[in-house]
Amino acid sequence: MKKIINDPETVVQDALRGMQAAHPDLLAVHPDPAVVVRAGGPVRSKVAIISGGGSGHEPLHGGFVGRGMLDAACPGPVFTSPTSDQVVDAIARTDGGAGALLVVKNYTGDVLNFEMAAELAESEVRSVVIDDDVAVKDSLYTAGRRGVGGTVLLEKIVGAAAERGDDLAACEALALRVIASVRSMGLALTSCVVPHVGSPSFELADDEMEVGIGIHGEPGRQKVKAGTASEMVSALLEPILDDLPFASGDRVLLFTNGMGGTPLLELYLAHGIAEQLLADRGITVERRLVGPYITSLEMQGMSLSLLRLDDEMVELWDAPVHTPALRWGV
Amino acid sequence: MGCTAADVVAAVRAAAAVVQEHRDELVRLDQAIGDADHGENMKRGFTAVVSRLDAEPPDTPAKVLKLVATTLISTVGGAAGPLYGTAFLRASSALGDAAELDSALVARALQAALDGVIARGKAAVGDKTMVDALTPAVTAAASADGSVAATLSAAADAAAEGASSTVPMVARKGRASYLGERSAGHMDPGARSTALLLRALADTAAKA
């Protein structure tokens, strides 16, 4: 294992120190318990939007802290959910009197820790759980679908709503609307190496890809021969389109996400193919996002997310945002 | 023979040592069907438990378990933090302010721990989770009679069998459930750690 780290045990703390150094105008990083909050303290009368999860998905979530998006992010160890005391601390530091909305990705650990935090917090707290990954069969017999790329879109849109003054119930309702309208799926060309493990999380031959991966190096549902970019895009887009289902005439946001190790050259290539496939179906891509925004360490691969838009979502997507990873309109 | 706060502290220290010893094994089990963090998370949690016990050893068995609970909740993360945290918290409540434990109290604490884990994680026997190790342990402890050591030993044996029983199971809870049929053929790491912890507690009680 070759990585730019000093000590596998302190990877997250060391990275947070660097993050604070890089963005002193946007963020304040509190080391114990680890919480990344928006610079300038709680915003009075604004709903605090708080998320968190295991580290290794950067820029998610800390890179989305700032005006128009998250008030706080709780980084857990690599691929491990944060503890409930981190979340309780984040709520206390950012509640400006209008309560807090917790944005939770659907993983057992995340759900349990955020649930305990919501019980322990002294503020008014609501939670939403995002589960946009169509690769997982949603049934009584699994932990349910995972929260993946749709989380980035949710945090941007609901963050903008909170910034314009929507109350807690309105932010929660909007979040649920986004969750109901977004679907995602990913594939991996290589595995990733968790620093404290030191070996690849799963094995993949040179000519194979893993379709339906999550963002934690957990294997997907099937290994298949890696084909052309067009085949890869179809392998992700078809299940997404069939699931909601999306239909001709829909207006969508298309998010082409890199898993950490795939160059932008390839992401743009894939994005172009996806736009064409959607146009062929009569689906209008009105907004787009391309780049590595929810990653899995150094994994090569990509995910696609499709969000069915309405006028309000478009307005909130376009609203100003000023965070380390997303910035426009400012 | 009774079992005082000091004995419980000794047992928890032994459990921490076992977690440290089996860290790599738990990582490997979790790597096969999960996300390779269970061994590391448990090691981090129990290391923190030991340093808090060093700082101020509690004076009743219940307080020892409560310290374990709050430390695991604030240091482990993942699903194991809240699940083990809830288990130790409920076990602590079940002990009340007893200065010494007998086998009936131990059995009651184990039952409370299991109830807590089920309430928090909503798993049932057969889902390939720690419930598959803890449930037979509780049953064994309830029907054991004699010393605390004998009760814990019966529980530990049953938990080990329960952990082995998870190997052919298809996971229905937690991250392993995403694998569907591919989760069969591997022991559940949470069931394994439950069995390891109970074995360590039993061995310490036997030596006391």
Structural description of this entry:
The complex is a heterodimer of chains A (330) and B (208). Chain A is α/β, with parallel strands linked by helices and 330 residues long. Chain A has 2 domains: 20-181, 3-Layer(aba) Sandwich (Rossmann fold), CATH 3.40.50.10440; 182-316, Hypothetical Protein Tm841, Chain: A,domain 3 (2-Layer Sandwich), CATH 3.30.1180. Helices cover 32% and strands 24% of the residues of chain A. Chain A has helices at 11-22, 84-94, 108-120, 150-163, 168-181, 229-243, 264-280, 311-318, and strands at residues 27-31, 34-38, 48-55, 72-78, 100-105, 125-130, 182-188, 208-211, 222-225, 251-258, 284-291, 301-308, 321-322, 327-328. In chain A, the strands form 3 sheets. Chain A has a 6-stranded mixed sheet with strand order 1-2-4-3-5-6, sandwiched between helices. A 6-stranded mixed sheet of chain A has the order 9-8-7-12-10-11. A two-stranded antiparallel sheet of chain A has the order 13-14. Chain A is globular, with a radius of gyration of 19 Å. Helix content of chain B is 70%, strand content 0%. Chain B has 9 helices and no strands. The longest helix of chain B is centred in the middle third of the chain and has 19 residues, at 103-121. Chain B starts with a helix and ends with a helix. The chains are: A alpha/beta (330), B mainly alpha (208). Chains A and B meet through strand 4 and helix 3 of A and helix 3, helix 4 and helix 5 of B.
